[in-house]
Amino acid sequence: MEVKIAQELIQLATHDLAVREQLLQENKLSNGYNPSMEAVHRANAVRLREIIGQIGWPTRSKVGEEASEAAWLIVQHAIGEALFMKSCYELMIVVGDDINPQHLAYLYDRICFFTGKPQRYGTQYDKDKLFPVEDKAAVNKLRAEISLPIITEQRIAEAIEAGNPADLHTDADFREWRRKAGWLSE
């Protein structure tokens, strides 16, 4: 096992969460992408890229459960780097059972959220409402397959209804940010 890399991944994720908590306490996290948080996410993504270059995706067998989870958290928070997030998703698919399948589900849904597409597993919310899902009838079956808790029928019924999930992202600043980050091709 890559002990030094494991320790470093855990440290990077812990720092991410500490900065996030501090910004939450200071009420500086809810108005756009806070520059301090973005700096942490970008620095962590740079280091994770280097680690991936050395050992491939940090799987359970390579770095242990906690560090593998830390790597997932780092990529899940790398929202300013669409190509990186998408490439990590592809790497995670390849390693299969050597990662927590919930991580793959969350990352898939996160990518869908930022690209304005319906999610598959119901892990992403917009203003406390479930972001649109691909198939409301199948979402709980898919969640059960990876040991995610069931979403109540009421919660599913209250899911944001939109003919086009991209319509939820109508804020011009958010749309421009997604374009610059590589989430939108237009």
TrEMBL record:
Q: Name one Pfam family in it.
A: DUF6624
InterPro entries registered for this protein in UniProt: DUF6624
Give the source's domain of life in one word. Answer: Bacteria
User: What protein name applies here?
Assistant: Uncharacterized protein
